[in-house]
Amino acid sequence: ARAKAARLGGHVVALTSMLAGLPLGYHRDLQEDKGPAFDAADTVEATLGALAGCVETLRFDEAAMREAAEAEALYATDLAEELVRAGVPFRQAHRRIGELLKRLHAEHRSLRSLGPDEWRDLGLPEGASLLDPDRSVRARSMPGGPSPASVLAQAQAIEATLAPRNHGVSKT
Question: What is the dihedral sign for C-alpha 96, 127, 87, 117?
Answer without folding.
Answer: negative
